[in-house]
Amino acid sequence: MTVARGGVAISPNYDGASPRLLGFFAAWRLQAIGYTAAAVQVALILLAYKAGTWLVSSKGIPLYKDFTCAFTAGLAALYAKRR
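RESULT FIELD:
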């Protein structure tokens, strides 16, 4: 074992090149998966909003979801900061 700067042990056969990634983790494929996931998330949010299952139903009644407390606390903090 050879010790490089900073006390990190490296093998004597280490040539300094970055490791080869698997074929699945190609940059273009990861980028396509990321854009697809973002588009699906936006579509689901829009569908929930249009269906009236967002924070307020189509009748104007508040719907209490698991994140409602955190969301309203954030809004209260923003309004309190403005004063």
